[in-house]
Design a protein that fits this description.
- With about 80 residues, the chain is an alpha+beta fold.
- It has one domain.
- Helices cover about 30% and strands about 20% of the residues.
- It is built from 2 helices and 3 strands, in the order βββαα.
- Strands 1-2-3 form a 3-stranded antiparallel sheet, with helices on one face.
- The relative contact order is 0.19.
């Protein structure tokens, strides 16, 4: 769990917690880590983040043009711009 201290934000998607990083030691690009496994959910990041962004009314269309990096940055921005 020490890794999540360096995360930009922690979010929950479908009952699981994920740490989001704009930059981190696992990748030089924006990414997310499943806190239950400590691993990057390769192949699942975009679909998970799409659900998160849609839930927060962020337009992700056209979906095919959105990269994982874009989705991570948008999710981090949502967390910083959402009133508590």
């Amino acid at each position: 769990m020490a890794k999540c201290k360096e995360a930009d934000v922690i979010i929950a998607i479908e009952g699981k917690e994920y740490a989001l990083y704009k930059k981190g030691n696992l990748s030089r690009y924006p990414y997310m880590v499943d806190l239950s496994t400590g691993k990057i959910p390769y192949g699942e990041q975009r679909p998970l983040l799409k659900n998160f962004l849609l839930h927060h009314s962020i337009d992700v269309e056209p979906w095919e043009t959105r990269t994982t990096h874009w989705c991570v940055r948008q999710a981090i921005d949502v967390c910083f711009n959402t009133p508590v």
